[in-house]
UniProtKB/TrEMBL annotation:
It comes from Collybia nuda. Pfam families: MMR_HSR1. Residues 23-98 form the G domain. This is P-loop containing nucleoside triphosphate hydrolase protein. GO terms for molecular function: GTP binding; hydrolase activity. The lineage of its organism: Eukaryota, Fungi, Dikarya, Basidiomycota, Agaricomycotina. Transmembrane segments: none annotated. Gene3D superfamilies: P-loop containing nucleotide triphosphate hydrolases.
Amino acid sequence: MSSINSGESTTFFEDDEPEEIAIAVMGPTGVGKTSFINLLSGSGLKVGSEMVSCTSSVQAANPFDFEDYRITLIDTPGFDDTTLRDSDVLGMIAAYLSYAHGHGQTLAGIVYMHRILDNRMGGISSRNFRMFRRLCGDNSLQNVVIVTNMWGQVDHELGVARETELATKDIFFKPVLEKGARLARHDRTLKSARAIIQSLVGKRPQVLQIQQELANGMDITETSAGKELNRDLMEQMSRHKEEIRLLMTQMEEASKLRDEEARRELSQDRARHRAEVTRIQLDSRNIVAGYAEAMMKLEQRVKESEAAAKIAAKKAEEAKESNLRFSEEQKNAQSVSADNAVIEAKMGAALPIFGFWGRLALMLSPFSLSWK
Ligand SMILES: Nc1nc2c(ncn2[C@@H]2O[C@H](COP(=O)(O)OP(=O)(O)OP(=O)(O)O)[C@@H](O)[C@H]2O)c(=O)[nH]1
Ligand SMILES: [Mg+2]
């Protein structure tokens, strides 16, 4: 602890307390975001397989100390999740960021993950990256590291050639690298993960475009990310509609030729595309509601956690007092409920200790499996 003596009074400040910062991790589903976060923070957030999406909400890992900082890593679901609608993913990310900004908090950095084993920036990768660009805007790119991983799964020379392509082509990462983002490799070791974090700590936190837009009173559909999602959904829909038109022409021909089997197969195909059109329509209509619902749930859960923490702390205090009063036998009988109260009270005790990000992580953690 240091002190400043101003003559009349002495002000003490905690210069040995780590500075609290938050870093978000984004990228397509299954790219290794949660694994990266667990490695650094020692958390046990659930990791998925390559086939099925795993992280279904914005969740924060246990804060960990790194040099002079206490870091909270924020895990996010990817767009094109196999179980969530894109509108819900946008809603959850936007709500979390907007809530933080509303409380005067900004991210110190963002890690965007990309699998080097993907032989090109396919549909899912480029959609996620476009959404990421719209969420961040240009001003916060200084605080972005694009991380390539899964190097062990490609021939090294091929990986290096892909990395060069990603860094030098306009359709890939070149435009963001020119505006201050950096490219780094992660080889699944703690050393490389820490080097990535090292390059972000100490950066001046920046307001992201989506935070600024929502703070300016924009509706989520008016934000760049909201517009991009809608545009993308409409594009997907017109592709399906085009397919449906084509299939209908082919069905007519099959009917003329009395080829019943071909007609049935084409009809099944058409039903599949029609189902996709309905799904996309619902997703598009859900953009406003998805955000509103995520924000409402987040605020409600923070409120509930704060209230529960207060009650739990009081209960634990009471249990402690009554334990002291009762005989040894009575004390034993009470110990189970007292233990429960003590566990619950840990949250009550911890809430005032952590800073904003740690508190938010703690408050949402009992509920973080899903916001739905
Ligand atoms: N080879 C290799 N596999 C990895 C790496 N990181 C993660 N994986 C594997 O990739 C799969 C997905 O990892 P997750 O960490 O769940 O990926 P995620 O991005 O959080 O996925 P979602 O939560 O679905 O968005 C798991 O089987 C991991 O074991 C890596 O650096 N190298
Ligand atoms: Mg995950």
